[in-house]
Amino acid sequence: MHDVIGIGLGPFNLGLAALLDPIDDVDEVFLEARDEIAWHPGMLLPDSRLQTPFMSDLVTMADPTSRHSFLQHLKETGRLYPFYIRESFYPLRREFDAYCRWVSQRLESVRLSRRVISVTFDEDRLAYVVRASTPDGEETYAARSLVVGTGTPPHVPDSCAGLPAEVHNSTYLRRKPQLLECRRVVVVGSGQSAAEIFQDLLATDDGREREIIWLTRSPRFFPLEYTKLTLEMTSPEYVDHIHALPPERREALIASQAQLYKGISGDLVDDIYDALYAAGVDGPPNARLFTNTAVTGSIQETDGTYRLTVKHADTGEERDIETDGLVLATGYKHEVPAFLAPVADRIRWDERGRFDVTRDYRVDVDGPPIWVQNAELHTHGFAAPDLGMAAYRNSFIVRGITGRAVYPIETRIAHQEFGLPEVAPLRQDVSV
Q1: Do the Cβ atoms of 141 and 7 come closer than 8 Å?
Q2: DSSP state letters, 170-193
Q3: What is the pLDDT of residues 5-41, one digit of tens each?
Q4: pLDDT band for position 396 (cuts 50, 70, 90)
Q5: Alpha-carbon distance 242 to 244, whole Å?
Q6: Contacts of 410 (CB under 8 A, 6+ apart)
């Protein structure tokens, strides 16, 4: 009987495992389906960087003294001084991936190659029973609480639903040699991944001629808004504000904030322009960029090529584009894991069949607790997928598991206020 079972080991649950590690009176186990920890391996381009500073590692924002910090990783691997001399807050994605793997190898609670099949509830023991497949058969675990952190699988829009799953950008590096042999590569998407892939293809000089087309339905290539007062919206106060709103208002507000967490790094936008400019010295670059252009239909031909039907939002025109190379950088979207079906009656749901997540990240109806990681965008706002807020959420979960505030939880960090202000009246002397 464990105190808690974590299902999934992306950065969020891995951070929780690291924060629970020094707590002697908690018995935890974390189950991961993969054979090793890997963070978006299909997008670990050589020079790609995190969009958040190194302090948004697995533990620092909850416990700056943790032995599982990114700086400790750099020290133990002999890279602390090079990182210092580099003078950048933003680690390479490849080194963040290596850091996550380093942490996982230090934790006795981690169990790899355990794919969860089902979660049931034992009424007699008031415990969740988790059944998982392993290379040698099956294993069963029991715990007084659960933390579900299974991540967000690749999302393919309905207009491309019939295409092979491999066209999603999550497989880009594995497919890159094949894409480089294509006469035309179409990249669909408006965010950081689409921009990084377009830049990578543009920068590849292998002697072959290919046309690169970048399509986005967005009205422009939005840069990620990263000003300091906007960053204050990833704060306890703003999460309080969002969570307290009526659901319909919350939905509309979150839908309007895509550029706050789905945009492209401003320096990457500039780098792409500079690359296009340099390529244009010898004539027009063999690259085309289209905004306001949505993919409304698609088929894969018998010869393996793709036919995309695209429509322009302003003109209403519609036409087909043929291509032998395609990358859908269309993001990721949360799905409720099928293994929770046996305990669905113990979970809070909203009207759209999503988790109805409480302010402290629980979804159970009336205990024992079930917490979720990065499944609360619709209830807590765009802080949900933010690496910098992960340790804050995990501090809540640790408090719920232990019954005490092991890691202090900030309640107010922002200079601005997000609700209607309460301002005291000016005092005036009244003469009689």
Answers
A1: no
A2: GGHHHHHHHHTT-SEEEEE-SSHH
A3: 999 999 999 999 999 999 999 999 999 999 999 999 9
A4: very high
A5: 5
A6: 236, 392
